[in-house]
Amino acid sequence: MILEAAVLAFLGIWLTNEYMNNIYMQLYWNSLISAHLTTYTIIIGLAIGLGGTVTAFTLWKNLREARYKLEHVTSPRLRGSVKQVLSMLPTMDEDYSPTPKHATAKHSQATFTSSTPPQNTSQEQPNPIQTIPPTAPLPDRQDPPS
User: Fold this and answer.
1) What is the pLDDT of residues 12-31, one digit of tens each?
2) Quick check: 19 and 29 in contact, CB under 8 A?
3) How many CB atoms lie within 10 A of CB 141?
4) pLDDT tens for residues 41-54?
């Protein structure tokens, strides 16, 4: 392999030097490339597009197979934790909006309550504000003494 790489490097250097010093070779290559530039661009664009599509499909298929294997774990010790993790993952059938529902409400309107939502006994619409778990404030940053 090293010998093959050395031969290819030698031929590449030789071809580059020949191109730089031979005006007829420069004219030939420039006319060949410029005559078919749009064809090369189309071929490269299609290759990138098809390669991306094949890559995305392959990754999706592998993810689907891995999820199927996780859903059918035979070990009883792992089955509970796997089901818990899988229940948190989104499915392809669910419709998700790009922004969370509580992001549209102002911060001053957000309520910090328990994780169980209150029961709505009246006929009015339920509150669209999701409950946000309380978080502790970040401590003040202190620079180390210099």
Assistant:
1) 999 999 999 999 999 998 88
2) yes
3) 5
4) 999 999 999 999 99
**pTM of the predicted model as reported, rounded to 2 decimal places:** 0.35
| Helix 37-71, helix 76-88: angle, nearest 10 | 130
- Could you tell me the two tokens for 104? 């549209």
Angle between helices 37-71 and 23-35 (to 10 degrees): 60
